[in-house]
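From the methods appendix. Each design record in this collection lists the tokenized structure first, followed by the designed amino acid sequence. Records were kept in a plain field format so they could be parsed without special tools. The example shown here is representative of the layout used throughout.

RECORD:
FOLD TOKENS (424 positions):
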């Protein structure tokens, strides 16, 4: 069977890993590079471009702690990115067995200002669900049979959002949609409003999946079916079981890489797969002699989705209540506070003291002190979507906004390993 994606070095490494699987049907016929690339260097273009690895699979010794590992791995990925002027962070993926191992890498991205795409569940909104997209939908739905001039959307956007804020993710995404409408229908004098509505929904779904310009942080499970130019597989001490199932999963992670593959080996709790890899397709790097673990890598970041919030909070107040006016004044990046009420509820409060929401009872946050809570998006909730008759009976508004939050948590003292000797 031919591989049309990875370099010969990556294919050889993956074959060594999967070759140990008991009774594997394809053992007699290992995967090989496709015929069109057989004459290419085993390391692809990186055989000459990278003086350190020469395009070989890089087995990198890392500290046992996730923070030290993140510092070492991201230093290496940054080095690789600097060697390719055309590289974009979306060409890179950091994969792990479990999400917890990725946390310090996410903190590194926040610290260094690197945009990233992390696995999110269905509780996170699409463009058409947030206030920016809903504003356009409201305009289009008012006259669904109306035919819209493509350039008129740009004029509306500029008037409504003052041309847009590049640092405001939802305005920037809506601006991309307006650009797409102008590009796709540039030869059409008018387009049906219903067609634009459908396009907005589809664009929102695709944009959520694309992660353009963002470093990908994912579990190996979550990366199935995807491919990236450069892949690093972390060793968080969680690749413990040397079973066929785990070996197949590790193999899946390895074969996500097209050009370069980085395999981490923990200093004391090494994964059971990479230590036995041998041959000319590999190069190995030892632990750093010393390593500084920035305190910033100990911070934990959470994006609270719809599942993390009590969605009906504002809906239990009449339209003229202060909560609705306060929600209308919120926007991306506005700071809020989370306080525990006398009844034990975790309430979301504005700087003027108005309670605008509440965390769900089953919302679990990492232990530690909340350093900041800011608005990430505002999603409209409709009374008609509330199915439970008891909850529906308590509503006093037909629609209301729900603020989704980005939370930064400072871990409890002693919870972060800031030792400088990575082997301890």
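DESIGN:
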């Amino acid at each position: 069977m031919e591989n049309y994606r990875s370099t010969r070095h990556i294919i050889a490494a993956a074959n060594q890993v999967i070759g140990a699987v008991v009774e594997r049907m394809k053992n007699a016929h290992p995967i090989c590079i496709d015929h069109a690339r057989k004459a290419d260097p085993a390391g692809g273009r990186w055989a000459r471009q990278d003086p350190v690895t020469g395009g070989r699979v890089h087995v990198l010794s890392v500290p046992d702690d996730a923070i030290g590992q993140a510092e070492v791995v991201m230093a290496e990925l940054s080095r690789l990115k600097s060697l390719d002027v055309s590289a974009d962070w979306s060409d890179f993926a950091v994969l792990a067995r479990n999400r917890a191992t990725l946390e310090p890498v996410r903190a590194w991205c926040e610290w260094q200002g690197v945009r990233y795409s992390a696995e999110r569940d269905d509780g996170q909104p699409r463009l058409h669900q947030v206030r920016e997209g809903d504003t356009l939908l409201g305009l289009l739905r008012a006259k669904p049979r109306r035919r819209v001039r493509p350039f008129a959307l740009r004029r509306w956007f500029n008037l409504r959002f003052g041309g847009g804020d590049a640092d405001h993710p939802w305005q920037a995404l809506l601006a991309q949609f307006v650009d797409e409408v102008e590009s796709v229908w540039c030869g059409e004098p008018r387009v049906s409003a219903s067609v634009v509505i459908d396009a907005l929904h589809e664009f929102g779904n695709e944009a959520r999946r694309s992660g353009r310009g963002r470093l990908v942080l994912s579990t190996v499970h979550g990366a199935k079916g995807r491919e990236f130019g450069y892949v690093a597989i972390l060793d968080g001490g969680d690749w413990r079981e040397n079973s066929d199932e785990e070996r197949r999963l590790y193999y899946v992670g390895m074969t996500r890489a097209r050009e370069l593959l980085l395999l981490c080996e923990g200093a004391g709790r090494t994964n059971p797969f990479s230590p036995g890899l041998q041959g000319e397709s590999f190069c190995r790097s030892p632990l750093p002699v010393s390593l500084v673990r920035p305190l910033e890598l100990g911070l934990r970041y959470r994006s609270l989705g719809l599942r993390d919030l009590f969605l009906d909070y504002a809906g239990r107040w009449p339209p003229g209540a202060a909560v609705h006016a306060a929600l209308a004044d919120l926007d991306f990046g506005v700071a809020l506070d989370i306080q525990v009420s006398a009844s034990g509820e975790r309430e979301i409060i504005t700087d003027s003291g108005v309670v605008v929401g509440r965390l769900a009872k089953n919302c679990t946050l990492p232990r530690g002190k909340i350093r900041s809570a800011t608005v990430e998006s505002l999603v409209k909730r409709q009374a008609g979507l509330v199915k439970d008759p008891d909850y529906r009976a308590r509503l006093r508004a037909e629609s209301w906004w729900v603020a989704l939050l980005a939370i930064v948590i400072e871990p409890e003292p002693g919870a972060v390993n800031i030792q400088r000797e990575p082997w301890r």
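APPENDIX NOTE: The domain at 2-115+213-292 is CATH 3.40.50.300 (Rossmann fold).
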